């Protein structure tokens, strides 16, 4: 089945999960227009939409959008936003050909992985015109609360700055070598981001400066499965930076010592180590451990296998 035109009659539908539909190319087929269906108003009450492992999905409808012959993007597609006025939850994963503009004025939670960078998700389109990067002009597109699971944090640069200024939770896994590359993103949400998970960033070496120091509201930081991460404050300029985070969690098997910049985390309340080395655990023991002076100000220090 290449389309789901039959769903056009479900105007009261609130939840839609599309998972593993290997032949699906469009949600709506153009021939159904003869029956009076409106491709832009298929799901006026849809609140939750999950699209997962739809590798052939190209767009919402095959009228003036999608991937044309020889995989060339249809240029007229960018002027056809698809309104989802009640949508609050959107999950898009492994949809490499999906390039629709989704207009989601009430979006709260966004989970997105393995997607086409031409995909656009916007909050408002009054008299504004959306360009190829997703930027708009005119009134604000602020997302009041957004949780984002993202495999390429630099994709956030395609949003206008005001769109992500209220981002409160970010989970990222990317090819970044340094968080300095994401400095503009972090500075945009510096006063709102409360939770950051950095996972499976195999190339990541630097996390201390060039990004995280902007996050003054951060309450929970987790670094996991990043084998090359360097936490040495001397190399990162930590002598001038104090980061007031309540918790700092990491899973770094090669880490054998904490560093003397740890006391600069003056608001740190919980320090968690996941699957750390035996040597590190010994160095952090109270009161004789060599690293105990670095972490003795932290009320709760936890080791997890």
From TrEMBL:
Domain of life where this protein originates: Eukaryota
SUPFAM superfamilies: L domain-like (SSF52058)
InterPro entries registered for this protein in UniProt: LRR_dom_sf
Record's protein name: Uncharacterized protein
Organism from which the protein derives: Chenopodium quinoa
